[in-house]
Amino acid sequence: MRKSLHLSAFVALLLAVGTAAAGPREGEWVSYRDAYRAMVVFEKYGKPKNLIQNHYQVAAKDQSTAYDGVQLALRGKSVRINLALDATGRVTFFPLLKAAYDENAELVLSRPLGALSFRPRVSIVARADGVYEAGELRAACEQALAYQRHVDASARGKKCVGVHFAFAPKGAGVSVKLRAADSATPAGLPVLDGAAFGDGPGEGFKTVSYRFGALPDTAQVLTQDAPLAISALFE
Questions:
Q1: Which domain of life is it from (predicted)?
Q2: What is the dihedral of CA 98, 104, 105, 108, to 10 degrees?
Q3: How far, in Å, CA of 116 to CA of 59, rounded?
């Protein structure tokens, strides 16, 4: 009986190791090697990327999930690091560590969040002054789309149509205005409940979408508060 239990435990261990090596899956953990490879692609990407950034994101299927206090722990034989998540589930700083890669370390959540997906997330760099030139937003969107085409062939038929600003879920008085070149008075853009990123479902954040349309590059988008995230809109 004892030998049978030992054999069962050994088989379970082999299955666990095999699953860890298989790569990302829905659950509470992911292989660091897979995350590392995905992040290195952006690091080595040689085309313009000065207006965009890349984070590793833990995305909960339940859009009401709060990431306050949640950490993604990097655990290996010689490496143990806690990685903080921002309000959108992105790792604020993702270390590229050869030792963790060689040890096939795991990225494990500090507490269960339900059904999850793990993925790199490209977004547009926010400006400290809250003033965004329409031409610069177009350029940032084009950089994001060029990178998306680099990693995903299905994006090659898409075009940039705008950008998506996300603010805190309980943000009061969110204000984003559009100032056209021929007008001294900015016009407010609609604030809606929606997902943090334009390609995601849910209504957990205050959001504003700005579509390029025919406005000249000299128009400006003005944000009163710093957005949690700015994402490109493709269609």
A1: Bacteria
A2: 130
A3: 6
